[in-house]
Design a protein that fits this description.
With 403 residues, this protein is α/β, with parallel strands linked by helices. It has a single domain, classed as TIM Barrel, CATH 3.20.20. Helices cover 30% and strands 21% of the residues. The protein is built from 13 helices and 16 strands. The strands form 2 sheets. The chain has an 8-stranded parallel barrel, surrounded by 5 helices. Helix 5 packs across helix 6.
Amino acid sequence: MKVAVCLIGFSAICLALVQATPVKADNEKAIFCYFESWTVYRPGNGKFDVENIDPNLCTHVAFTFLGLNSDGTLNILDPWESNPDGLDGFERLVGLKKQNSNLKVLASLGGWNEGSLKYSQVVADPAKRANLVASAIAFINKYGFDGLDFDWEYPSRRDSENPDDKENFVTMLQELREAFDQYGLLLSAAVNSAKVNVDISYNVPLLSKYLDHVNVMTYDFHGDFDKYIGHHTLLYSAPIDAQYNNSEWNIDDGIKYWLASGMDPAKMNFGIATYARTFTMADSTNPELYAAITGGGVPGPYTRSAGVLGYNEICELYPNRTDIFDDVQMVPHVVIGNQWIGYDNEQSIGIKVDYALNKSLGGFMVWSFDTDDFTGLCGEGTYPLTRAIHTKLAQRGFTLKKN
């Protein structure tokens, strides 16, 4: 049974993964899932709202996103979706705990669209940090959340190249931690997974000290921003990656570096992406890695963004597709006409779960609910990718965290 997930694209690496015996310091694992609040506005079968969430699917659910004001106070980015005079999203999300008393619901601050500069300026100022702490506690207590997820993308990068971001971020987390402990609140953060970026952005031992969960974003290694074909969730590099100076640009090197840098593995959640990065090939007869592209792939009907497709869009648009499994990078892709679509399926997720368990990681992070096949329209049941985590955990004798 353990070898079955690797029958397609079988390799010695895959065999080693499934045969290894984990060190079970903790038999319970977290599944930390993100709710993209803007998905309530998607059309047709893509519309996703709180009521589509199975409250027993994940141990933690995070609302995305809250924003930050320049004075350090929290900003509710979409009051209509969130507040009682609109769709009342906060109350309905927190209400999921009535269906599962073990579920923890957090609010996530930041995200890609928030940028980095504003966060850099706030964490550098003691008064603004104090505002953030007070504002976060007031918000959490008002709506009944269990904690805060800090998703600053990314310290000392993007529109802030301030080298002090790294230590100021730690100071911010320390102050949140000290205040949160008085209320029994959780504190987590989403972090970049690439080895080359860890030293720039993170004081790893201190993040390990102050955070309850560290959600490692083990995806987006490649995309149409590269101008060539590449899989965005590759577990290992292929030989060709070395030719482009990308031999360490993969999940394995990143995870190992986080651990070597002082992160407690029990606090790390391995990221699982339920969406694809897609490409329009310049030459449809050349679908190889690093082949030229003309841009991102054709937008899907729900995500409606070039270069991205949800798994639900893939399985609806291409029900008869044939996956091509890369038994070095340990990920599948599909080629349809001039479209190259790299994503994860149940097989590759099973391999990644084995990998994380063998590293004694604390659990998994799923981005996100709405791009899994949450409706079950494709005939694999609801949430087939997220449930693949459950299946592998059960096979390996692990259970879900209860607190």
